[in-house]
Amino acid sequence: MAIKTHIIGKIVIEASELGQLKSSTLTVNINTGDTSKIGTPWESSVELGKGWEVAAECDYDPADTAQAAMITAYTSGDVAISSLDVYEDASVMHTGSALLTSAVITKSMGSVDTLSLAFKGIGALSHA
């Protein structure tokens, strides 16, 4: 089994790479519905649909183009992202459209300021 380390991965938002990326999480959810009959000892389920979301944390840099665009998007209300690419390495990526659902700037004495972003996928997520 190969273990991947986050040394090459990146996030690209509408052709602009998110600078100072420290961590990212891509979550794919499969929603299910319970179809078990009363009195059945084992649960039975059916797939209802899929969804995905991305969380990213970076050292906050107001001069970074992608970071500044996300702050502007969140404060203006224009949160639709037409292209969000999450790279596993130099060439393998997941891509889709998303909504920016959260932008948090954290300031803490004695540490570097951080920007945390959260995105909720709109439609399918492709993998190439």
Describe the structure.
With about 130 residues, the chain is mainly beta. The protein has a single domain, classed as Elongation Factor Tu (Ef-tu), domain 3 (Beta Barrel). Helix content is about 10%, strand content about 55%. The chain has one helix and seven strands, in the order E-E-E-E-H-E-E-E. Strands 2-1-5-6-7-4-3 form a seven-stranded antiparallel sheet. Strand 6 and strand 7 (about 115-125) form a beta hairpin. The longest helix is centred in the middle third of the chain and has 12 residues, at about 65-75. The radius of gyration is 18 Å and the shape is elongated. The model has no long low-confidence stretch (mean pLDDT about 90).
End-to-end gap: 21 Å
Mean pLDDT: 92
Q: Helix tally?
A: 1
The CATH top-level class label:
Mainly Beta
Q: Which sequence of SSEs, written as H and E, runs from N to C?
A: EEEEHEEE
Specify the biggest β-sheet: 7 strands, antiparallel
Tally of strands = 7
Number of structural domains: 1
Structural class: mainly beta
- Kindly state the percentage of residues in helix: under 10%
Strand order of the largest sheet: 2-1-5-6-7-4-3
